[in-house]
């Protein structure tokens, strides 16, 4: 790995390991390049001769960079990535070695699908699955010391065509939103438009020393500390956020950025986060499916580079108790074919009416499908954060800022009449860009906030794929735009002029989705009561949230937009439930093991030492007063009491774990774990943490928080 001082200029190596547009223009015949771009940008059919030419050029490019194998790189419903490596090597009919990579091999692969989650869509013995090339996301080379692997981004589908991954639904949702947005733009006289969604995920993570990580079995298997007493210092001094970055961490960040830049990932921002040893990396926005691929790459590269630097990277949403966990703010916007952000106010009154139409469509989508958006971010890890005064609450609401809220209220309360340019100016819409420039506050308690020309979905967990939340959001807004376009066309057909018709539609939907707008403190008890009055769903944990996948209104939206079939919706529900139960199962089994093999033996050893010490003092007779003995006897009683309480709680947890095994219904199992098992896990932890604070350092068998969070 070259040092920063010896590396080339960033622009000389950025995208070096991607089969990007510049490489395609250089290596493909002009006609082939033009036809491929029609496939990427307009969805034109990919012809076999184009696929063959691209495959040949891609192979030659990869081989010239020392690559010997290729893989169809896909994102199954595990939330991770998957790959099966195949060599370019083949043997011709004369037994001579050759390198081969055809268009058919580029377009389609056939990994064994039997061991990937399907949520009940197929039986285990039905093993066949297909990967299909996504030409809109660049292929890339993942380097290692022995060469590199050509990774081809793909979707993953079953033999019958059902989506078995997170990417295929995302691509479908992008198409649904494009069609709905293009229809609305056509009503504004914009003609045929290619519309896409852009995403910019802000990735948070923790770094700890690898030696300490390897001594914590809970971190290794569960991704978070299941026990651990809080140290005297946490984040209360507020001295880590945006603080000076430690040299070891900065070296890691620079190494990671070097790898990401070669992969064409435009990492833009890096900084310390609020909690000790917590950090953030954020990229420049890109098209939704490319952004999703890049975020998966970011997480993979960060993990690998961290280990190379003697560090462990933690992506769990709550690896440590008592300090902030990690999230992933997802910045979302819509861009037309001319590169104009449709959530960016324009320079004329008519452009700003268009902006308001799209803004209100987003509000409508979030309001109608708030429960589905909540379900899209549900996980065992994220349950630790939502509503815990460090992340937005589990109630989906939208923050707009006072300026936009006032404008929407004015439209809602308008008394009708002709909507001319002067009326638009009077509403404060004409100069919206200048007004909004410095008037979009950052309400940290809002799960969904407008920040000037985009929305920031702040409730995602740090370990999650961004594909599912983006898919649900795209679908929700697509459906809202469809309803609003229907109403606009109806108003125009009834003889209203265009501005009047727009404001008729805006007024209707502003009034309808007003309950989802909230400008206050999302952490307050008052908001919980107010949200209930407004009828907003408050799905406090994952089992409650996931049930909404089966709600008729949600199934209708997802099927009508073509994002999922009913079977695919059910599979997501089943897969997420199973993942929740399995995640908690690993945690409580790990906690039982750590209590029995680490904490209890250490505590009993200390207890025995205290008994021996007290007995020895008593044998000295009058030389040791009762007053001198009393504190040690008190300590012994305290330690013995905690040991007894710990063993009792551990036995209770073991019995509940056995009970879980008897539950066949996955929803009931998840609800049982949330309601009965987790509280007892917390009891076990409480006694473990109390014993940690009582035992001498040399007897405590695990690295403590002060080491994990303050030594690097």
Give a written overview of the molecule.
With 712 residues, this protein is an alpha+beta fold. The protein folds into three domains: 4-163, Glutamine synthetase, N-terminal domain (Ubiquitin-like (UB roll), Roll); 174-564, Creatine Kinase, Chain A, domain 2; 581-710, Four Helix Bundle (Hemerythrin (Met), subunit A), CATH 1.20.120.1560. 50% of the residues lie in helices and 12% in strands. The strands form three sheets. Strands 9, 10, 11, 12, 13, 14, 15, 16 and 17 form a nine-stranded mixed sheet that branches. Strands 1, 2, 5, 6, 7 and 8 form a six-stranded mixed sheet that branches. A hairpin with a 5-residue loop joins strand 3 (89-91) and strand 4 (97-99). The longest helix has 54 residues, at 566-619. Mean pLDDT is 91; it is low at 430-438.
Short recap of the structure:
With 712 residues, this protein is of the alpha+beta class. It is 50% helix and 12% strand.
Keywords:
alpha+beta; 50% helix; Creatine Kinase, Chain A, domain 2; 24 helices; 712 residues
Mean pLDDT: 91
Shape: globular
What gap, in angstroms, lies between the N and C termini? 21 Å
Question: And the CATH topology of the largest domain?
Answer: Creatine Kinase, Chain A, domain 2
Helix count equals 24
* Number of beta-strand segments: 17
